[in-house]
Design goal:
heterodimer, A: mainly beta, seven-stranded mixed beta sheet, 10 strands, B: mainly beta, four-stranded antiparallel beta sheet, 11 strands
């Protein structure tokens, strides 16, 4: 099973700042099969990025994904108030599909 | 509008059973792999089970193998999860998820609480 470790656990930033979230895999993940999700309290996860760097439908271009192998990054270029949430990465290359434990992005 | 709506959650005693349902609309349900993913209180997302488009192939997480059964009725556009021998650690919000490689559409979830 591929273990995904996200860092930091909590990130405190202000609106307008840049956010960089990390996802590290215990073994190489084909970049075609790495996704990022956003989840707000009481809501279902929302797909942001798939294939490591492709934005899902309707996702603003301030969200970008990068990386390959075992190291992947989600970047939010300029934080908007609605971006404060929990972000989780997921690999869907190897079975069982696994998720990271999440990074909470909170307002500083 | 593409939509997934789960139902069937509730409070159940340890050792009990529940059947979750997920009603799909707005897309061709019979063409897609479907999954159940759960999230325990204050915890991360955990994949539970998947089923192929015609229902002939299923997979399960080790933690639920032999206790849970996923199925679908393509005529009714509905996904199911039969959960037996429930344990306290099965307490979670259960999400129904469409797979278009990636998992792109999630339902709002239904809450299962296993407690005496």
């Amino acid at each position: 099973e591929i273990v995904l470790t996200q860092s930091p656990g909590t990130l405190s930033l202000s609106p307008g700042e840049r956010a960089t979230l990390s996802c590290r895999a215990s073994q190489s993940v084909s970049s075609s099969y790495l996704a990022w999700y956003q989840q707000k309290p009481g809501q279902a996860p929302r797909l942001l990025i798939y294939g490591a760097s492709s934005r899902a439908t309707g996702i603003p271009d301030r969200f970008s994904g990068s990386g390959s192998g075992t190291d992947f990054t989600l970047t939010i270029s300029r934080l908007e108030p609605e971006d404060f949430a929990v972000y989780s990465c997921q690999q869907y290359a190897n079975f069982p599909y696994t998720f990271g434990q999440g990074t909470k992005l909170e307002i500083k | 509008e593409v939509q997934l709506v789960e139902s069937g959650g509730g409070l159940v005693q340890p050792g009990g059973s529940l059947r979750l349902s997920c009603a799909a609309s707005g897309f061709t349900f019979s063409s897609h792999w479907m999954h159940w993913v759960r999230q325990g209180p204050g915890k991360g997302l955990v994949w539970v089970s998947r089923i192929n488009p015609d229902g002939s192939s299923t997979s399960y997480a080790d933690s639920v193998e032999g206790r849970f059964a996923i199925s679908r009725d393509n005529a009714k556009n509905t996904l199911y999860l039969q959960m037996n021998s429930l344990r306290a650690e099965d307490t979670a919000v259960y999400y129904c998820v469409r797979d278009t490689n990636p998992m792109d559409v999630w339902g709002k979830g239904t809450t299962v609480t296993v407690s005496s």
